[in-house]
Amino acid sequence: MRAIRAGLIGMALLALAACGGPGERARGIPDRFRDLDPYDWRGLTPARHAVHGIDVSRYQGDIDWHRVARSGVSFAFVKATEGGDHTDPSFAANWQGAARAGLPRGAYHFFYLCRPAAEQAAWFLAHVPREAGALPPVLDIEWNHASRTCRARPDPAGLRAEIATFQDIVARHYGQRPVIYTTVDFFADNDLGRLGREEFWLRSVAGHPRKTFPGQDWSFWQYTGTGVVHGVSGAVDLNAFAGSEADWARWRARRSL
User: Fold this and answer.
1) CB atoms near residue 40 (< 10 Å)
2) The whole model's pTM is what?
3) Where do the domains of the chain lie?
4) SS3 state of residue 138
5) Which residue has the higher pLDDT, 16 or 75?
6) Can you give the pLDDT at residue 8?
7) Which residues contact 206 (CB under 8 A, 6 or more apart)?
8) pLDDT exceeding 90 applies to what percent of the chain?
9) What is the pLDDT of residues 195-204, one digit of tens each?
10) Most exposed among 83, 231, 247, 253, judged by the fewest C-beta atoms under 10 Å?
11) Which CATH number applies to 6-255: 3.40.50.2300, 3.20.20.80, 3.30.450.20, 3.40.50.1970?
């Protein structure tokens, strides 16, 4: 869920303009989407999953949520907060816009590795409404090599304890335990499989999670950061749900606020 760097966006949009169309039809992703920098998916591909969605932040600019809802997108996760003193300036517009379009949506928090988890949980609670029918909250935790203020690499046991603190506080408030979004390197470096009961959203843009996170259960898979969806200008993250449409309906019934 990391912000796409301005240079990548610029290159991607130049490529889009040059080819005269909305990205490329990428092998292995649903035909209703495109990709500005497609991976050559084979075997276990995103297209084998029935339910797909997006995650967004201020970097996507103004979004036409009604077009998004008509595009084949089934859910959206919206950035709300970061650390203990930052809110995404587009959160309110995206949160309300998705709801008006009838699109299931949830909010996510980007974890800052140099601030106590309890403070960050309190910040999230202060800015994200508890609304019936919303998807569960999400904790986005990953290495942030571009950070100008925090290059910390906490010890894995301490980090897992901080994750548990955030999860417990947020779960008590919303009645749903957050889904944890993370990357291949962060998961491995911190042995996050030891968290046990947690539910995962895994980023893997060059291989199915079955290969890149062997043996790990997951509910969501982020398979590209350069997707193209009607209603969103430029690149957007695309994600697949692990099960069928019937599984998705059951998951929402169980996990919505």
Assistant:
1) 9
2) 0.92
3) 6-255
4) strand
5) 75
6) 46
7) 39, 212
8) 86
9) 988 999 999 9
10) 253
11) 3.20.20.80
